[in-house]
Write a structure and sequence with these properties.
The complex is a heterodimer of chains A (300) and B (382). Chain A is built from 14 helices and 2 strands, in the order H-H-E-E-H-H-H-H-H-H-H-H-H-H-H-H. Chain A has 300 residues and is mainly alpha-helical. Classes of the chains: A mainly alpha (300), B alpha+beta (382).
């Protein structure tokens, strides 16, 4: 929000604050209160098995957290998950968007089919992949492997994190596709024609015109997807339950384990604060990127 | 510099949007034209007449479904746009929004891996010609419409192409800037001498800029000629009405015994006009065309042509005044003296010289008694 011009009278300025108050209040209740409560609990010694033995613990939960090797595994898993899923969904989404931007027979149906994974609930996605695709006995993948004469792979136990990455990417590629496709469709045709007359081949056309045009859309996709990937939970819960060992335990799942298996509210609150910090680090970088791009775009 | 040849070129769309059946399915039909080296050719016509399609076929952005397009004798029908050595200025300018003006202009050369010094030299040169040197570091979004127009021209100029194509490049500018750029483009063409195709729907632009003008309608060439000949010797009623502002007036006339008559007007024809209309004994009909600038206010009942009617609209333009007069059913526009002492509703008598009228066939709209002048006019082969 920019300050109103100096010649505006105080009277003119007064109602803004009052008018903004409800939304500020809403944000406060919606965001700050849970955050403050989490922060408060993270400083408490509070285990649900012993609810009476509650008291101030200071930084003890954080100390336990940072010395817990599972936490560091979870942190690494979270980052791996976010980065690989982002790479896969954006690249595959862009490729599909370029494909669907061309006209061909049955494009409408193909487009609807391509987008449909996005409408499947995460838990259902997990179950579909676990039982219908990845199952070493009944799964489609193992059937394909067997029919080609190979030993079927036990995906969930041999490549657990990769399996989760596949599920999440399958679910979110349509999202990238959808947004990038709208981006492509807003590209003025005459720019492509101009660049063709200027002597560009297909690749140069893509590199110098299409990609810069998609710039801000790409950043929006990356930002939204990182928010969701940072919090992925249902796919893991429904398939590997964070295992084997800690192979697919990410931060949300780690917090869940802490709160509902160890009943340690203090520790899981501290982990939640850790997740908030991580999310904020990501957000700072991304929002800077996006803001720069949105500003550049608005001046077009 | 190049000679561009279009031979029986046609464009047919399989499904024309908004049109059903085979009617008008041809966007361009039977287009024949051979340019001279370094000629400035204007394609003009109402919207949807196929002028832009023709230009896009020359550029290679559309494929011609029939005929041949040759540039310097080489058939380019199968040549990709990027290999045709053609530069085009788009109506929307189509500047690359994320590149600076310098890069917009240098881009084509950079793609061709031209040495950096050479690129810089050519961009500077073009910028100097167009007076946009001070804009080189800016992005297109920071430019005004007129400046963008210049950059678009500059981008084409830098390439030093064989052929320039300009697709209504001035239609997004305000009236004043348009007149300015019109002269500038003409000057530029004279300086560079590159064969240029220029598409416009504005007949004033066509008349002022074109060395030769192609008048099109419904995908067909109506007439290809110099501006002067189009004005003086239009081949049909469409061209006559399209060229000249305000448009030529058309009156449905009965012809008998050497005179044309109608409600509110009459005109004694000259002998050669009479012979064009054929048998004078028989009563026949034709269109009488008379340009607003050839009507004069008169009192005396001299010979020649005269028409009479009530004044409905008076438009003072400064140097002249336009008056619209109701003659029979038709509203006739006349260009009269600046100080017109006439009120709306007055009856006005106007005289005209029979030598300055045009006669058109009532059915085919073709010009009657047009003496063909092989030296100056290249007629479209029908």
């Amino acid at each position: 929000m920019s300050a109103p011009p100096t010649n505006a009278s105080p009277k003119r300025r007064a109602p803004t604050k009052r008018l903004m108050a409800p939304s500020v209040l809403f944000l406060l209740v919606w965001m700050i209160v849970p955050l403050a409560m989490t922060l408060y609990y993270s400083l408490q010694d509070y285990n649900l098995m012993m609810p009476d033995m509650r008291g101030f613990a200071g930084g003890l939960s954080y100390e336990l957290l940072f010395t817990d090797p599972v936490f560091w595994d979870a942190l690494l898993n979270t980052l791996l998950l976010v980065v690989t899923c982002l790479l896969i969904t954006v690249v595959a989404g862009l490729a599909l968007a370029l494909l669907f931007n061309r006209t061909f027979v049955g494009r409408g149906i193909a487009r609807t089919l391509a987008i449909s994974p996005f409408f499947v609930m995460p838990v259902v996605t997990g179950l579909i992949w676990k039982y219908m695709l990845l199952d070493p006995v009944y799964g489609l993948f193992s059937w394909v492997m067997r029919s080609m004469g190979f030993e079927p792979i036990e995906w969930l136990s041999s490549y657990p994190l990769l399996s989760v990455v596949m599920m999440i990417s399958w679910e979110w590629t349509p999202f990238a596709l959808l947004i990038l496709l709208t981006g492509l469709q807003s590209l003025p045709e005459d720019q492509l024609e101009a660049v063709r007359l200027d002597g560009a081949n297909r690749w140069q056309e893509f590199r110098h015109i299409v990609l810069p045009h998609l710039g801000q859309v790409l950043y929006v996709v990356v930002m939204l997807e990182s928010i969701f990937f940072l919090t992925s939970f249902a796919e893991i819960y429904a398939t590997t339950s964070g295992g084997p060992g800690t192979a697919t335990t990410n931060l949300p799942y780690y917090i869940y384990l802490g709160a509902f298996f160890q009943y340690d509210i203090g520790l899981s609150s501290a982990a939640a604060i850790g997740a908030v910090v991580l999310a904020n680090i990501c957000a700072i970088f991304l929002i800077r990127f996006v803001a720069g791009n949105l500003n550049a775009g608005s001046q077009r | 510099m190049a000679i561009v040849e279009l031979k029986n070129v046609a464009k047919r769309y399989d499904s024309m949007p908004g049109r059903k059946g085979n009617e008008h399915a041809n966007a361009v039909e039977d287009f024949n034209l051979i340019t001279r080296d370094g000629e400035f050719v204007v394609l003009v016509g109402p919207s949807g007449c196929g002028k832009s399609t023709t230009m896009r076929m020359i550029a290679g952005l559309e494929h011609n479904t029939a005929g041949e397009i040759r540039i310097n004798g080489q058939d380019v029908s199968a040549v990709e746009p990027r290999d045709r050595d053609i530069a085009m200025v788009f109506q929307s300018y189509a500047l690359y929004p994320h590149m600076s003006v310098y890069h917009n202009m240098a881009f084509a050369l950079e793609l061709k891996k031209t040495p950096k010094d050479e690129v810089k030299k050519r961009v500077q040169e073009a910028a100097k010609i167009l007076d946009i040197e001070y804009l080189l570091d800016r992005k297109p979004r920071a430019l005004s419409g007129g400046q963008r127009q210049r950059v678009a021209l500059g981008r084409a100029l830098v390439r030093q192409p064989q052929v320039f194509l300009m697709d209504e490049p001035l239609s997004n500018l305000d009236a004043r800037l348009r007149v300015e750029m019109r002269a500038e483009i003409t000057r530029l063409h004279r300086r560079l001498g590159v064969t240029t195709f220029y598409v416009t729907h504005d007949q004033t632009e066509a008349m002022t800029m074109g060395q030769r003008i192609v008048v099109m309608r419904d995908g067909r060439i109506q007439q290809i000629d110099t501006p002067y000949n189009l004005y003086e010797r239009p081949v049909n009623r469409f061209v006559a009405g399209f060229i000249g502002t305000p448009s030529m007036n058309f009156l449905k006339a009965d012809y008998q015994g050497g005179t044309l008559k109608g409600k509110g007007f009459s005109c004694t024809l000259n002998p050669h006009q009479q012979s064009a209309l054929g048998d004078s004994a028989q009563c026949s009909q034709c269109w009488l065309g008379i340009r607003p600038e050839h009507l004069h206010q008169t009192e005396a009942s001299t010979g020649g042509g005269r028409l009479e009617g009530a004044v409905e609209v008076i438009e003072p333009l400064g140097p002249v005044t336009m008056a619209q007069v109701r003659v029979g059913e038709t509203l006739v526009t006349a260009q009269l003296a600046a100080h017109l002492e006439v009120q709306i509703g007055d009856t006005l008598t106007l005289a005209f010289d029979p030598d300055q009228i045009h006669l058109f066939d009532i059915e085919s709209d073709r010009t009657l008694g047009l003496e063909t002048d092989p030296a100056s006019s290249v007629q479209a082969t029908a």
